[in-house]
Specification:
The protein has about 190 residues and is an alpha/beta fold. It has a domain of about 130 residues: 3-Layer(aba) Sandwich (Lysozyme-like). It contains five helices and ten strands; from the N terminus they run βββααββββββαβαα. It has a six-stranded mixed beta sheet. Strands 2-6 form a two-stranded antiparallel sheet. The longest helix is centred in the last third of the chain and has 17 residues. It is globular and about 45 Å long.
């Protein structure tokens, strides 16, 4: 006997045992490592990213996360490359696609120096989602739609992550980071996942 999915969950993807999200385009990054054995995944961090800053749609974010960004392709890229190896679990470009670079059971390098509720090294226990955007441009409705579906799947797989444990990069690295920025609509997003 089949059961119907709860209303509003019909299109929520699943997450496999390694942490790959169903429906996401896999783009395996070399920039990850194992989480500490005792680290429970209990935090979701929302970021924004654009390369070069304020420009959207190019291959540069993908190149950064895949470790192949050419520092000579743009004046800013030397700075981006000097910052070290970075990655994220998920990226949502302006067109709403969903790209995955690191399985959620592994540690992506998205938060840098960070602290949440007295716990440092947020990469150890968090999942990072990057939205292609910046602090000065509203995000696209389709990005919120994809973010909502991804967040619901993550909350279903990792029940310690509830709305109170979904935060911005700026919340765990105040003074150092500003993303996802003042134009990210937290009220809209949080209402969509409740």
């Amino acid at each position: 006997m089949s059961q119907m999915a709860p209303r509003g969950t019909e299109s929520i993807p699943g997450i496999d045992r390694e942490g790959w999200l169903e429906g996401a385009e896999r783009r395996p990054s070399p920039h990850w490592d194992e989480r500490p054995p005792d680290a429970a995944i209990d935090l979701l961090v929302v970021h924004n990213i654009s390369l070069p800053p304020g420009e959207f749609g190019g291959p540069w974010i993908d190149d950064l996360f895949l470790g192949r960004l050419d520092p000579e392709a743009h004046a800013y890229f030397e700075v981006a490359c000097a910052a070290g190896r970075v990655s994220t679990h998920l990226l949502i470009p302006r067109d709403g696609r969903l790209l995955q670079y690191v399985p959620m059971e592994r540690r992506a390098w998205h938060a840098g120096y960070s602290c949440f509720a007295g716990r440092e090294r947020c990469n150890d226990f968090s999942i990072g989602i990057e939205l292609e955007g910046d602090d000065f441009t509203p995000f696209e409705p389709v990005q919120y739609d994809t973010l909502t579906r991804a967040a619901r799947a993550i909350m279903g797989r990792y029940p310690a992550i509830g709305p109170g444990r979904i935060i911005g990069h700026s919340d765990i690295a105040p003074g150092r980071k500003t993303d996802p920025g003042p134009l990210f609509d937290w009220d809209l997003f949080l209402a969509s996942i409740r």
